[in-house]
Design a protein that fits this description.
By secondary structure, this protein is α/β, with parallel strands linked by helices. The chain is built from 20 helices and 18 strands.
Length: 508
């Protein structure tokens, strides 16, 4: 007899159906798994044999062959332990026939306990899309399966329970996971933009950045408040919509961050890696490949504090994700693509000592050293920032005399207002202004005559690249949205141009 049990496997966020075929044959007793299994699956033979002997001592002593179909697809991870064990139990005649549209996912302990796995939400969503009607998971992963609609999720704590159900001694519905999804608790932040005195222009730039999804770079001396401003970015970001929430939740499920959650992730990610991070940590990689900080920041913010302290190759690795919104990790046998559509927020000192052009402290760097320090940020990377703003340091007297500025709530309301107007103006197009294609730029960004003349003059004077030209148009469109105006006028355009005010060459 050959038994067939279904499961699913992951390749990045893509899910594939796996048919697990098990056969008992005469010959020297052994246990073989074929079908491109990785080392973890090969090791599972000992886990599965010991677990089955622990819960049922009458497994036939014969040659066991397990085929993981399709045979040309690489299978990785421990979540095939459970379906292989179920296939052996069915082939041995210990349990009845498994329903055709039921899939199994889980790791086994030596005592027959069914353990949770990472990526359960991605696996459950993929199983639903592949036509699977019911899914068996561990109790640890039950809440992740319950998040996915339109698929029945059953949860078991050990193999004994599963044997009792499929021998007819217990009802399967007794193990149905409850579809009770807890809403994410409203996050209360301990920080607020009202903590930052002054720097109202930088706050305005951050509002524009959040409203249109524009990449932003702040440069200034130590103590000017750059990091303080950036770290408050999450307090003004709107929640993820349903489609975004599912994708972000899948990414975090892959790294095991969803095991203690009972709801989809609704808050936009804010990732702030240290400058000593490895390429695999930032881009993604490993074996099996896992998402890096760029993917973990998908639909949120990737904040690089002191970006010029990062290695140049790490900074250059931002190019393709910022352009395409995804990362492809290539291996000899396959390639995996992770989403990476994030808002890049960065800040930096203007030079190594930090005091170039500072009002209060003299700079000790040679001009050649400043140029060398800034050369880490190449022209193509600088071109990918929509906003590049100098943040001056305020004197003690100015700080003491200043009143509290805008709060995070006020700034968030501005962001929400602009996004609402953008949806009205575009008749529901969900794209951020920063993501508009050339065709959409022509459709949605309409300049009045005075703005056109100003733009032509600015291009001649500043020698903007084609990418910078597009970014200024998109930036001015967001500024117009904040004012709830359908036509981009010269004031909107002038503010957009002024938000790219960093002179990169220290000789200028």
């Amino acid at each position: 007899m050959i038994s067939k049990v279904k499961s699913v496997t992951l390749n990045g966020l893509d899910t594939y159906l796996v048919d697990i075929e098990v056969s008992f044959t005469t010959g020297y007793p052994g246990f073989t798994i074929v079908g491109l299994p990785d080392a973890v699956i090969q090791e599972s033979r000992e886990r599965i044999k010991t677990a089955l002997k622990h819960v049922y001592s009458e497994i036939p002593i014969k040659k066991i062959t397990v085929n993981l179909a399709p045979a040309d697809l690489r299978k990785e991870g421990s979540y095939l332990d459970l379906p292989v064990a179920v296939g052996i139990l069915e082939a041995a005649g210990i349990i009845g026939k498994i329903p055709e549209n039921m899939a199994f996912i889980g790791e086994l302990g030596l005592d027959g306990q069914i353990r949770g796995v990472s990526g359960a939400i991605s696996l459950a969503l993929g199983a639903k899309n592949l036509g699977i009607e019911s899914l068996v998971l561990s109790e640890e992963n039950a809440h992740e399966g319950a998040i996915v609609p339109e698929i029945k999720t059953y949860s078991f704590s050990n193999l004994n329970q599963l044997i009792e159900v499929f021998t007819g001694n217990l009802a399967l519905d007794n193990f149905l996971a409850k579809k009770t999804i807890e809403e994410e608790i409203e996050t209360s932040f301990d920080i607020d933009y009202s903590d930052v005195k002054g720097q109202e222009r930088a706050k305005r730039a951050i509002v524009i950045s959040a409203a249109g999804g524009h990449n932003i770079l702040l440069m200034g001396p130590p103590g000017s408040g750059k990091s303080m401003l950036m770290k408050r970015f999450p307090t003004i970001l709107p929640d993820l919509d349903d489609e975004e929430s599912i994708i972000v939740t899948q990414i975090y499920s892959l790294i095991g961050e969803m095991k203690n959650r009972k709801s989809l992730i609704r808050k936009r990610p804010f990732r702030s890696p240290h400058h000593s991070i490895s390429p695999a940590g930032l881009v993604g990689g490993g074996s099996p490949p896992r998402p890096g900080e760029m993917s973990l920041a998908h639909r949120g913010v990737l904040f690089l504090d002191e970006i010029l302290e990062f290695r140049k190759d790490l900074i250059e690795s931002l190019r393709q994700p910022l352009e395409d919104g995804k990362i492809t990790i290539s291996r000899a046998s396959s390639s995996i693509t992770f989403p990476a559509q994030f808002l890049l927020a960065a800040c930096s000192n203007p030079c190594r000592c930090g005091y170039f052009k500072d009002r209060f402290n003299p700079c000790t760097c040679a001009i050649s050293d400043i140029k060398k320090y800034r050369s880490k940020l190449s022209g193509p990377i600088r071109d990918r920032f929509d906003i590049m703003l100098e943040v001056p340091r305020l004197s003690n007297e100015e700080l003491l005399e200043m009143k509290t500025g805008k709060t995070s709530e006020e700034m968030k309301n501005e962001v929400l207002k602009a996004k609402k107007f953008k949806l009205y103006r575009t008749k529901g197009n969900p794209k951020n202004n920063s993501e508009l294609s050339p065709k959409e730029i022509k459709k949605y960004i309409i300049l009045d005559d005075k703005a056109k003349r100003l733009l032509a003059t600015a291009i001649d004077n500043h020698h903007f690249s084609a990418r910078a030209y597009d970014k200024i148009l998109k930036l001015s469109r967001t500024i117009a949205d904040l004012n709830e105006e359908e036509i981009v006028n010269s004031q909107h355009l002038a503010e957009a141009i002024s938000l790219r005010n960093i002179k990169w060459d220290p000789y200028e």
